[in-house]
Design brief:
The protein has 345 residues and is an alpha+beta fold. The chain folds into two domains: 228 residues, Zn peptidases (Aminopeptidase, 3-Layer(aba) Sandwich); 95 residues, Elongation Factor Tu (Ef-tu), domain 3 (Beta Barrel), CATH 2.40.30. It contains seven helices and 19 strands. The strands form three sheets. Strands 1, 2, 3, 12, 13, 14, 15, 16, 17 and 18 form a ten-stranded mixed β-sheet that branches. The mean pLDDT is 97.
């Protein structure tokens, strides 16, 4: 096993950069451009699919494998503009309303302009409304208050803001001295950064690939069809490199790489999962084997689209998924170590 400190640090830096690039599902072009530039610096030749997923061959021969991470995130879109000038939004992806209450947002117009605002409860003031504490947080009770002088719908329209404009949430990304990364969208920008670090290790000649290896960055995973198309025709095996679910009776934590045996879509491939476990144990990688009860992955979209591939799922443990998430440098490093070892056997 190679020394991974250098590549773990690059993964962390890449994660921090990616978290700062707005990319809700359907609005991922800037994140794709970032990844493309990084891979070209490493002398790779990444290509985009028709729906703007990114695929890159790292090298190797035989037994083709795809490692897939998604760069699309949760977000929202303007549903309508209220008579008061406040904005009603519709979610992109699945999250609880309370997870985004009081969050700062950016509106991205179709003409390339940006405007800021904040998500508030319709009964926002505890000193004014009796139901502030009890009102259910959902699409009807949450609204965006623009940081512009607007008093009616016409004022908002004059700014160029319209229904159908994308909305991104402030990621509030922090990297602590103790090694924690706190941010929205570590699902799945943590693993996207890990795949970039893997690519760099390959480019530097530190990893000898024993099979043909692709990395793929999908862009519609949060809405269910990320890897349903665009998979290379020769693919025999595919592993989603996503987030490990943390909570309840699961054994995964922020310091481990999680190997998923089953999620809401059913069991993962028996032999692939066994091989991942054997590799982790052989290389003394800190891992957990878990079942994710409310979870779906890119590789499931691939299978449902009819592709005949073996499939697996791993990722660093991420706490508070689909909220203000947290992972640790150790979880990033253990995921990278498992991938390097798996590709070297």
């Amino acid at each position: 096993m190679i020394k991974t400190d250098k590549y773990t640090q690059y993964a962390v830096q890449s994660i921090l950069s990616l978290c700062g690039i707005p990319s809700p599902s359907g609005f991922t072009h800037n994140a794709v451009d970032f990844l493309k530039k990084e891979l070209k610096k490493m002398q790779f030749a990444p290509k985009t699919t028709r729906k703007n997923a990114l695929i890159c061959v790292l090298g190797g021969r035989g037994r083709p494998l795809v490692l897939a991470a998604h760069i699309d995130t949760l977000g929202a879109m303007i549903r309508s503009i209220k008579g008061s000038g406040k904005i009603r939004f519709t979610p992109i992806g699945g999250y609880a309303g309370g997870f985004v209450e009081n969050e700062n947002v950016t509106i991205h117009t179709r003409q390339g302009k940006t405007f800021t605002g904040t998500i508030h409860l319709t009964s926002a003031a505890a000193h004014t409304y009796k139901d502030t504490h009890t009102l259910e947080r959902n699409e009807a009770s949450l609204e965006i208050v623009l940081d512009e002088v607007v008093r009616k719908e016409e004022d908002v329209l004059k700014l160029g803001i319209k229904p159908g404009d994308f909305i991104s949430f402030d990621p509030r990304t922090i990297y602590t001295e103790s090694g924690f990364i706190k941010s929205r969208f570590l699902d799945d920008k943590a693993s996207a950064g890990i795949l970039l670090a893997l690519a760099r290790a390959v480019s530097d000649g530190k990893v000898r690939l024993t099979r043909k290896t692709y990395i793929m960055f999908t862009n519609y995973e949060e809405v269910g069809h990320g890897a349903s198309s665009g998979i290379p025709e020769d693919t025999e095996e595919m592993i989603s490199v996503d987030m490990g679910a943390v909570g309840d009776d699961l054994k995964t934590d922020e310091y481990k790489v999680s190997i998923c045996a089953k999620d809401s879509g059913g069991p993962y491939d028996y032999n692939v999962t066994n091989k991942l476990i054997e590799t982790a144990e052989k290389e003394n990688v800190n891992y957990a084997l878990d079942i994710y009860p409310y979870y779906g992955s890119d590789v499931e979209a691939t299978l449902r689209a009819g592709y005949d591939v073996r499939h697996g799922l791993i990722g660093p443990g991420v706490f508070a998924s689909h909220s203000y998430e947290r992972t640790h440098r150790q979880g990033i490093e253990n995921t990278l170590k498992l991938l390097i070892a798996y590709l070297s056997e």
